[in-house]
Specification:
The protein is of the alpha+beta class and 174 residues long. It has helices at residues 14-29, 68-83, 148-160; strands at residues 33-36, 44-46, 52-55, 62-65, 103-110, 118-125, 132-138. The chain is built from three helices and seven strands.
Length: 174
């Protein structure tokens, strides 16, 4: 029950969270039928002249079937968190064209005994041509909207060729 409300001991890393978010996003875009992406570093090895030396296998992909009604509620919630007044990262995404590239984002704050909190932010930007999942964590960075979410916004701006500006969120939750 503690994990369901964002408390408790959860050990994860940014790559694992990116895989989880990409699975949710993929299932959301395909009516509940999703693919679990297997992380990889490249598709092929090319020679200096550009010719193919070796193709790299991706391995098997796992598939998930999620209840679309439940998944839609989760996605609606994280979209509103990044786009609606009072959302935990809405300040950070102010001025972003949500109609063209909707953002689904969730702040996180990990507590470490004796240290400042670790800042987390996960985002899925649902661009029809170039969707992207971004995972950011900053050790001792404080609340997710203050440090990690602005970094994700900068990364998304770079990826989509949009003007870059650092907009820190608030530590207030509504």
């Amino acid at each position: 029950m503690h994990l369901a409300v964002g408390q408790g001991d959860l050990l994860t890393n940014p790559l694992q969270m990116a895989v989880a978010y990409s699975t949710l996003a993929n299932a959301f875009e395909h009516g509940g039928e999703g693919t679990v992406v297997r992380p990889h570093l490249g598709r092929e090895i090319d020679e200096s002249a550009g010719g193919l030396v070796q193709s790299l296998p991706f391995g098997s992909r796992r598939h998930v079937r999620l209840n679309y009604a439940d998944l839609s509620l989760v996605m609606e919630g994280i979209h509103e968190a990044a786009s609606q007044p009072g959302g935990t990262s809405a300040d950070v995404w102010a001025g972003w064209d949500q109609a063209q590239d909707p953002v689904y984002g969730k702040t996180g704050t990990a507590e470490h005994f004796g240290k400042e909190d670790q800042s987390w932010y996960m985002a899925y930007i649902a661009d029809p041509k170039r969707p992207i999942v971004i995972a950011v964590t900053v050790e001792e960075g404080g609340f997710g909207a203050e440090t990690a979410a602005p970094i994700a916004r900068l990364m998304a701006s770079q990826f989509f060729g949009k003007p870059k500006k650092f907009v820190a969120g608030s530590s207030k939750t509504f």
